[in-house]
Specification:
about 290 residues; binds NADP nicotinamide-adenine-dinucleotide phosphate; single chain; globular; alpha/beta
Length: about 290
């Protein structure tokens, strides 16, 4: 049965995404990994094929800071595959102490952690909804509890920016968009597609390693690293959500269990505000 299922994992050149790709390739899924660098992505796909003996591992490319590239990646996927069962929106991360904006005018943390999964899910939903058991898994973070402080008049922190707050906000927004999409699919009667988000744990990957957060925070991240878990442990809840016989939707998971996300900034109105904001930002690519 797994042999027929197709899974797409974004940001799978290393870290949690690659560990999840390995775990699913071992179970004989057809695995498509995504990366932004051709050399790194092709190498990761080759390593996964060799390590698992599964030849149904390939890749697509796209710089997910750019929605034009998300669109191209979706088109590339749709031109090559006639089936999609599981979409794991994993690409993301923490940016630098100085706020940066993409060539499309979007703050980088917001672009890769919020808008890219939003747009990719929208573009692939028509194919995913043909699956008997379609699943979208969004990789969020506990940072939404620790660091989020959203300003709904300034979603992308143009007036006041801190990389940790931007990251916490982005993952909070991803959790809300997960819940919102789940609600829309249920309303539309698309009960065959579930959408959930995940905190993978504190994992020793490239996460935060190349981010310049500023003197003290750079040191703090280095000191914490020895206490982090392995990428394989980080991939655990992702692979659980991809493979387990569960049909929950709109939930946030930690250690294979649905848990309540922080609700401090939540209201139905804020959730809708965010959703409408994302639509405005990506509508030219939808
Ligand atoms: N590690 C943790 O403790 C932790 C905790 C909570 C949540 N998370 C989340 O888990 C997910 C995976 O992170 P990780 O820990 O495995 O970190 P990682 O080792 O840095 O992996 C991140 C992946 O995302 C890709 N990526 C980043 N920006 C991209 C862009 N603009 N376009 C395309 N691909 C991009 C990276 O590609 P390149 O190889 O090209 O850089 C890499 O494949 C992220 O969403 C992260 O926020 C991590």
């Amino acid at each position: 049965m797994n042999q027929e299922k197709v899974v797409l994992i974004t940001g799978a050149t290393g870290g949690i995404g690659k560990a999840a790709a390995l775990a699913l390739a071992k179970q004989q899924y057809t695995v498509v990994i995504h990366g932004r660098n051709k050399g790194r992505t092709a190498l990761a796909a080759e390593e996964i094929r060799i390590m698992t003996g599964n030849n149904k591992v390939s890749y697509i490319l796209g710089d997910f800071f750019l929605m034009s590239d998300v669109k191209k990646a979706a088109e590339s996927f749709l031109s090559k595959y006639k089936r999609l069962d599981i979409l794991i929106n994993n690409a993301g991360g923490l940016m630098n102490k100085d706020r940066a904006v993409t060539a499309e005018g979007v703050e980088t943390t917001f672009a890769v952690n919020v808008l890219a999964p939003f747009l990719l899910s929208e573009l692939l939903l028509p194919l995913l909804s043909q699956s008997e058991d379609g699943r979208i898994i969004n990789v969020a973070s506990n940072s939404h509890r620790l660091n989020a402080k959203p300003d709904f008049n300034d979603m992308e922190g143009s007036k006041k920016y801190n990389p940790l707050v931007a990251y916490g906000n982005a993952k909070l927004f991803l959790i809300w968009n997960t819940r919102h999409l789940a609600g829309l699919l249920t309303t539309q009667g698309l009960h065959n597609v579930t959408v959930n988000s995940v905190h993978p744990g504190a994992i020793a990957t490239n996460f935060g390693v190349t981010s310049n957060l500023g003197g003290f925070l750079n040191l703090f991240v280095k000191l914490l690293r020895p206490f982090f878990k392995t990428p394989e442990q980080g991939a655990q809840t992702l692979t659980y959500l991809a493979t387990a016989d569960i049909h929950l939707t709109g939930n946030y998971f930690e250690k294979n269990k649905p848990v309540a996300p922080a609700e401090k900034y939540y209201s139905k109105r804020n959730e809708q505000l965010l959703w409408d904001y994302c639509i405005q930002k990506v509508k030219q690519w939808m």
